[in-house]
Amino acid sequence: MPVSAASIARFAAVLADRSRVEVCLALLDGRAWTAAELARHVGIARSTASEHLTALVKAGLLVERRQGRARYLQLAGPEAAAAIEALGAAVGERVQPTSLRTARADAALAEARTCYDHLAGRQGVAVHDALLAGGLLSDRGGLAVTARGRRWFVEVCGVPDEPPNSRRPLVRECLDWTERRSHLGGFLGAALLRHALTVGWVTTVAAHPRALRVTTAGEELLAACSGGAASAGQPDQVGHGQPGE
């Protein structure tokens, strides 16, 4: 179904307020935040935050959960996270850090971070490129996981042979807002990050909820991805994705 200009304009208007954008950026860590936490983070009154959160929920960017008297907010899903990341990449404006602490936090985010539930930043792009170089992904005719890649994800990351039925594609290109190149999203991108955190390839950084640190053992990830090209021949494409998650 074609999208109307009016619907795009209404959606853009929701993000025309800086406080609402700040809320969305905070929620890119994939967690659910309370309305009070988001109000403190943005630096606005609870009543003002409530109005902004209601508008973001109505626009489909956030989902609301209630537990007791607490109101929890979370990004509506990977598509919402990708929209925010893509806008960041399109804007292309870098804010100059105002302190050494801010500069270090910015550097950590640019190196490796979560994009909702998958790996982003320089390391995320490197993994995406290594999977392509290793023949585990193919970008001929759209991003797709190859037959050899499916075996790699099953054997190395413990992904089930038959992923659960979902509208989410197996693999999807997500435009990285700091690198301006693609990192891996989709079902397998999320599975890869979960496995990397479980086995200690990456760890979280206490100073920032989205920042990740690639460990020494994490270098095995790129080696394992690139090593997927051991077998010869053109692999079959078995799972296509869509650009711009």
Q: What is the structure about, briefly put?
A:
The chain has 245 residues and is of the alpha+beta class. The chain contains ten helices and twelve strands. Strands 1-3-2 form a three-stranded antiparallel β-sheet. A three-stranded antiparallel β-sheet has the order 6-7-12. It has a two-stranded antiparallel sheet with strand order 4-5.
Describe this protein's structure:
By secondary structure, the protein is α+β, with helices and mostly antiparallel strands. The chain has helices spanning 5-14, 18-26, 35-42, 46-58, 78-91, 100-111, 121-133, 147-157, 186-199, 219-226; strands spanning 33-34, 62-67, 70-75, 113-115, 118-120, 137-138, 144-146, 172-175, 182-185, 202-205, 208-214, 237-240. The strands form 5 sheets. It has a 3-stranded antiparallel β-sheet with strand order 1-3-2. A hairpin with a 2-residue loop joins β4 and β5. α2 (18-26) crosses α3 (35-42), α3 crosses α4 and α7 runs parallel beside α10. It starts with a helix and ends in a 5-residue tail after the last strand. Mean pLDDT is 82; it is low at 95-100 and 229-245.
Short key terms for the protein model shown above:
three-stranded antiparallel beta sheet; alpha+beta; globular; 245 residues; 20% strand; 10 helices
